[in-house]
Recover the amino acids of this structure.
């Protein structure tokens, strides 16, 4: 005779587990569910910038985005053939529009490697000026959506200078500008993240700022940031220690490669040590809502026509390679990088859109076709389309020419389980 559970509904399937047994299991699973939901709220798809531009704090100005856009347009106009050869999807008109309207999505005024060591009086003056420039940029509708600084690092010989600079920048800005985030360079130990959170709390208290107003990104420039002395993955623990304040992880190409013993001639975003570090970053950040940003290249499109063409192709190839591997953001260090950044980004998403939209349309219509996609794949397809729309690679009308039933609301609905930020 089969055993039945207590208080079982007469129409439900017969099971042997009692209500007490089910309650016991739920008491074990429930706290795990809560912890997983807290640690892994889902990917933050929507709003991620395509790049971060680094400008020396000595050159800070509220007009920097317009100046860089104009300089990038001059490079494009001076070497049209070099860039036309790289354009396979008629993206150059979009590039020109972007350079003229909103060339920079994310901006950091740099007080670290791109600035060097200067007297305290000089850095104090620059920090106050940077704050004022950031405040003006935050009010500019054509300015960057995200902006901030990279201060000195966390090592004993420089951290007090870095903290002072950050404080003076906030003073100069009159508070926390919209979209403000500061970069923490050269992370080496997970405990440093706890200290950075404490720094945010102390600054908020001292300056009367709203709680949790300050956010930061961690720059991965040392092997210890990837694998700690105890053999654990420093990055995964660091994200948890950040207590929701960490917006992204940024890869530092040259410092990291040098720390691994790679000679300067071989240091590159495409080197195996870079791929290893970035893949660990990607896995550590997965489903946490923390973005991952690739690094930079020191090769810039300057010189004669041949040199410009070669460096432009190299950057387009590197950006495309990163996009193909799931790194949707990278550093730009020169106005010429804006041309190739946007050319590669627009090209990638314009090529991806027709396939993604058609497959997603088929999924929504339940028509199947040659590929039978699952819900997780449908979310990934929606993510591609949201990122492409955010970048400006195509618009809603172009997407609906492929699949008329897709709009922002549909994409938002598909991403509900993974998105943690407004799609804008």
């Amino acid at each position: 005779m089969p055993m039945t559970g207590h208080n079982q509904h007469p129409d439900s399937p017969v099971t042997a587990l009692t209500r007490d047994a089910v309650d016991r299991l739920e008491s074990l699973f429930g706290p795990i569910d809560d912890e997983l939901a807290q640690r892994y709220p889902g990917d933050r798809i929507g709003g991620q910038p395509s790049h971060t531009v680094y400008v020396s704090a000595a050159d800070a100005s509220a007009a920097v985005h317009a100046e860089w856009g104009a300089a990038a347009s001059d490079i494009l106009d001076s070497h049209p053939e070099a860039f036309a050869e790289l354009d396979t999807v008629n993206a150059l008109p979009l590039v020109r529009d972007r350079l003229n309207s909103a060339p920079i999505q994310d901006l950091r005024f740099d007080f670290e490697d791109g600035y060097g060591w200067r007297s305290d009086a000089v850095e104090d003056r620059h920090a106050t000026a940077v704050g004022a420039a950031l405040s003006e940029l935050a009010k500019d509708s054509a300015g960057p959506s995200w902006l901030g600084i990279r201060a000195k690092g966390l090592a004993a010989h420089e951290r007090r200078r870095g903290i002072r600079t950050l404080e003076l920048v906030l003073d100069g800005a009159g508070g926390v500008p919209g979209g403000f985030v500061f970069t923490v360079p050269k992370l080496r130990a997970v405990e440093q993240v706890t200290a950075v959170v404490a720094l945010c709390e102390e600054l908020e208290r001292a300056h009367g700022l709203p709680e949790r107003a300050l956010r930061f990104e961690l720059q991965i420039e040392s092997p210890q940031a990837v694998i700690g002395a105890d053999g654990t993955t420093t990055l995964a623990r660091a994200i948890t220690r950040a207590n929701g304040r960490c917006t992204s992880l940024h890869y530092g190409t040259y410092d990291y490669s040098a720390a691994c013993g790679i000679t300067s001639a071989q240091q590159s975003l495409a080197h195996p040590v870079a791929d290893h570090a970035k893949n660990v970053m990607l896995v550590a950040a997965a489903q946490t809502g923390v973005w991952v940003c690739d690094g930079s290249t020191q090769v810039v499109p300057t010189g004669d026509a041949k040199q410009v063409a070669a460096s432009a192709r190299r950057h387009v190839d590197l950006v495309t390679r990163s996009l193909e591997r799931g790194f949707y953001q990278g550093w730009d260090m020169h106005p010429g990088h804006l041309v190739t950044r946007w050319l590669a980004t627009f090209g990638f998403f314009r090529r991806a859109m027709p396939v993604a939209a058609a497959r997603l349309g088929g999924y929504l219509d339940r028509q199947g076709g040659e590929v039978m996609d699952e819900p997780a794949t449908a979310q990934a397809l929606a993510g591609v389309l949201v990122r492409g729309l955010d970048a400006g690679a195509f618009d809603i009308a172009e997407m609906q020419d492929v699949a008329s039933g897709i709009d922002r609301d549909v994409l938002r609905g598909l991403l509900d389980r993974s998105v943690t930020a407004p799609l804008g």
